[in-house]
Amino acid sequence: MKNILLVIIVSVCLSCHHNDYIREKEALIVLYNTTNGDNWKNNTNWCSDQPLKTWHGIKTNDEGLVSELYLNSNQLSGTIPDEIGHLVHLTSLWLFSNRLSGHIPQGIGQLTHLECLFLDNNNLSGTIPAKLGAITNLKDLSLADNHLSGTIPDELGALTQLQRLWLHNNQLSGNIPSSIGNLTKLTSLNLSNNQLSGNIPNRIGQLTKLVDLDLSNNQLSGGFPITFAHLTRIGYSFNLRNNKLSDTVPNKIKSMSNWPTIKNKKWILPTWRVYKRICRLYRCGSKYRTDL
């Protein structure tokens, strides 16, 4: 009886695994078709009967299911399908530096194992889905250099494992949500070159691991938060220029020996070039991203 039960359990598991494999393969084929796969720079083995791990840009786990997808700089065009959410074992999704357009699909919010999400340097539009706040394992989120609009979702404050958040060079508006203060593991925050307004939240002062902070070229107003005195790791990539901020800097900030000098009452510190040099190389998933 026990042997029969064991055979049944094994059969069910194998059937489920096969179904997962087929579901993922179908989702990848949809991605191929919606992003003009025939014209990709490299589409080796895509849509073939070869194992998924042999398809260009795909890494699989021990069960042969997709765990990492690297299609950056591969001439993808068109839209990201909602079926991307069927790749539920993904930990890394790199689609940056392509020609992707349309909205960020809601299905990405189903990728709860995702640690790295790079969609930057595309032509994506629409709003940032609030469902991204459900990907609580995320460590890196970059949606920069697109045409995204609307507000920064308050739900992003649930991404408490996040270390880098890059939303710069979009058309985002409204206030910076105070929930960003929940992201206490952040080392890098870039919201520059948007249309953000209102005061800088005092809760940014809770991000005590921040090394890089760029809020420049927005419409932020008010004063310099006294809570910035807690940002003792800030280096030479602090930038608040081209906003509507008061020139007054609290004495407590001015007296900090580790705080870089603020020049010409413009709240300018050394340039983005320095920021890029500091962050040029870091590991994400099984790869190093070196194009920053």
Report on this model:
With about 290 residues, the protein is α/β, with parallel strands linked by helices. About 15% of the residues lie in helices and about 20% in strands. It contains three helices and 19 strands. The strands form three sheets. It has a nine-stranded mixed beta sheet, with no helix packed on it. Strands 3-5-7-9-11-13-15-17 form an eight-stranded parallel beta sheet, with no helix packed on it. The protein is elongated.
Short description:
It contains three helices and 19 strands.
Intertermini distance: 60 Å
Q: Can you give the mean pLDDT?
A: 85
Measured by DSSP, the beta-strand proportion falls in: 15-25%
Number of helices: 3
Number of strands: 19
Structural class by sheet pairing and helices: alpha/beta
User: How are the strands of the biggest sheet laid out side by side?
Assistant: 1-2-4-6-8-10-12-14-16
| Oligomeric state | single chain
Q: Sheet bearing the most strands, described? A: 9 strands, mixed
Stretches with pLDDT under 50, minimum 5 residues: 5-16, 261-281
Sequence of secondary-structure elements: HEEEEEEEEEEEEEEEEEHHEE
Report the C-alpha radius of gyration, rounded. Answer: 22 Å
Helical amount among residues, as a percent range?
A: 10-25%
Shape: elongated
